[in-house]
Amino acid sequence: MRIAVVGAGYWGINLIRVFHRMGVLSRICDSSTAALETLAKTYPEVEMGNSLEAILADPDIDAVVIATPAECHYEMASKALRAGKDVYVEKPLTLHCAEAEELTSLAERRRRILMVGHLLKFHPAITRLKEMIEQGELGRIEYVYSNRLNLGKVRREENALWSFAPHDISVILFLLNQMPIQVTATGGAYLQPNVADVTVSTMLFDRGARAHVFVSWLHPYKEQKLVVVGERRMAVFDDIRKTDKLQLFGKKIDLVNGQYVAAKPEGLPVALSQDEPLLLECQHFVECVEKRRTPITDGHDGWRVLKVLEASQRSLSMNGEPVQLDLVRSGEVLRV
Fold first, then answer.
1. Which tens digit of pLDDT belongs to each residue from 81-105?
2. Residues 220-252: tens digit of each pLDDT
3. Rounded to 5 degrees, what are φ and ψ at 151?
4. Where are the extended beta strands (E) located within 124-276?
5. What is the pTM of this model?
6. Which residues contact 244 (CB under 8 A, 6 or more apart)?
7. What residue ranges define each of the domains in the chain, with the CATH number in brackets?
């Protein structure tokens, strides 16, 4: 297999590293000559260039990996699919649900693989947490919250919601196996006009489950934490920890003399594989291309995340007014 990576920026260099490690990296494309010259020293056997058209015209290139700014995703992915290439697109798939639908339909008509880079769905901790939920270890899920906070990575072309939240929205939909029926979002723009640096999105699901996603690039320390509260147990995924990233907590609350008394639980670490999530994700893409299988993060999955992002953005622009999601399509059961 021969893969071309388009975009050698902050995240593209990680995709380049992993696909090269897998032995399938054939070409790197970027608009920066300086970046290509630097990469050529590390990967001298890989062809460098700045022309997407040259990649699409090359019959020896089987798949294209797109790691460019989000506003370029739709046009580049559309061209690659029409050229007969299988395509991996970093999150978000596009900036509009309508464009995601078009790409998904195009991939299906052309019988091409279309995969979105929702990395956390390949993290061993999330995979194990999903298994625990399905096996009933936590009981009925009542509440999920996710914090993705840091100081820096300030973007001009997208706000913190679109930059950070796709990861967490993807995981929450995956764990709860459904779409929210209502979304609210609030936030604040402090560095640039109309570009929110901090947002809090709240999702209401059928049967009363709720979730919130807090993202910010104006935070004094880095935090990447997901908490799942079930009726029986609670789980915490802390991706900043070096070890014991996933812990399971008991949930014992008794009514004593008319007062609720909670027993402070001890966290029990959950055994996990040490596989790199990005390697697992890239291996999945290659396997889907080779065996013509539908990725677990296909175009439909990308559309669902965009549906929540668009609703959150609409609520954000209305200063937190609730937005009901269109359930004609968004009520479909997620494939897991």
1. 999 999 999 999 999 999 999 999 9
2. 999 999 999 999 999 999 999 999 999 999 988
3. -110, 110
4. 141-151, 182-188, 198-204, 210-216, 218-230, 233-238, 246-250, 253-256, 259-262, 268-269
5. 0.91
6. 267, 269
7. 3-120+279-297 (3.40.50.720), 121-276+304-330 (3.30.360.10)
